[in-house]
């Protein structure tokens, strides 16, 4: 399953759309009202398997990622002898990795992104989220939040995120939740903790966005 959050298109410019592109008119209208769309089986299984293998290799130390990629360990596992995949909650800053960059530049993703924010897109952040099996559930939970808190550039209607599950997800094991229509609201006060099953995501912005 793949989700795109925060904008869309139609044949004419809307507040949250660019116009034309890979989305149907129905998808355009839905996004304008709700702030997200869902495309099932949009990214190939082959690419998702390649990303999953890359994640395992990085966690097991088979690949030297240097200072470019940051591994975030699950805080609840610090006192346990846990290594590899089951100790890592997040792979951060993997935008330029040889394999993760295939997702970032995959036409199955970028064609929809350009339909939402226009043709001048810049990938600004990529990460893989993992929910370790032995972690405290509360340590890997992520409440409803607005990503815009973390981005200093604007306007918000020219920023979009793609989110793709690497394995089957449902309401019991950590799927992605959206509250329809909240893309029209102002930023709300937030408290943070995290949750999610295994997924890969990337944020994109119109290259003309300003700090």
Description:
The protein is α+β, with helices and mostly antiparallel strands and 211 residues long. It has a single domain (2-181, 192-206), classed as Sandwich (Jelly Rolls). It has helices at residues 25-34, 45-59, 100-104, 107-117; strands at 2-5, 36-39, 70-73, 88-92, 121-129, 159-165, 199-206. Strands 2-1-6-7-5-4-3 form a 7-stranded antiparallel beta sheet. The longest helix has 15 residues, at 45-59. The chain is globular.
Defining traits:
19% helix, 4 helices, 211 residues
> What is the CATH architecture descriptor?
Sandwich
CATH superfamily: q2cbj1_9rhob like domain
Structurally, the number of domains stands at 1
Strand order of the largest sheet: 2-1-6-7-5-4-3
The third-level CATH topology is Jelly Rolls
Task: Tell me what portion of residues adopts beta-strand conformation.
Answer: 15-25%
Round the Cα radius of gyration to an integer and report it.
Answer: 17 Å
Oligomer: single chain
CATH class: Mainly Beta
Average pLDDT number: 82
Terminal residue distance? 32 Å
**Share of residues in helices:** 10-25%
How many β-strand stretches? 7
Q: Which regions have little confidence, pLDDT < 50, spanning 5+ residues?
A: 6-12
Number of helices: 4
Shape: globular
The computed structural class is alpha+beta
Largest sheet: 7 strands, antiparallel
- The sequence of SSEs as H and E is EHEHEEHHEEE
In short:
The protein has helices spanning 25-34, 45-59, 100-104, 107-117; strands at residues 2-5, 36-39, 70-73, 88-92, 121-129, 159-165, 199-206.
């Amino acid at each position: 399953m793949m989700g795109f959050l925060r904008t869309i298109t139609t044949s004419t410019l809307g507040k949250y759309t660019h116009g034309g592109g890979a989305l149907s008119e129905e998808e355009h209208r839905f996004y304008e009202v709700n702030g997200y769309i869902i495309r099932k089986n949009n990214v190939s299984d082959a690419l998702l398997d390649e990303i999953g293998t890359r994640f395992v290799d990085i966690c097991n130390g088979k690949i030297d990622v240097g200072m470019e990629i940051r591994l975030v360990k699950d805080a609840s596992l610090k006192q346990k002898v846990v290594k590899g995949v089951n100790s890592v909650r997040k792979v951060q800053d993997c935008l330029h990795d040889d394999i993760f960059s295939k997702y970032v530049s995959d036409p199955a993703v970028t064609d929809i992104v350009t339909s939402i924010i226009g043709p001048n897109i810049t990938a600004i952040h990529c990460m893989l989220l993992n929910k370790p099996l032995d972690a405290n559930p509360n340590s890997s939970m992520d409440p409803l939040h607005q990503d815009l808190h973390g981005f200093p550039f604007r306007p918000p209607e020219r920023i979009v995120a793609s989110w793709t599950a690497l394995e089957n997800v449902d309401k019991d094991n950590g799927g992605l939740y959206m509250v329809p229509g909240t893309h029209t609201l102002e930023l709300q006060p937030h408290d943070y903790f995290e949750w999610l099953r295994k997924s890969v995501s990337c944020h994109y912005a119109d290259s003309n966005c300003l700090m």
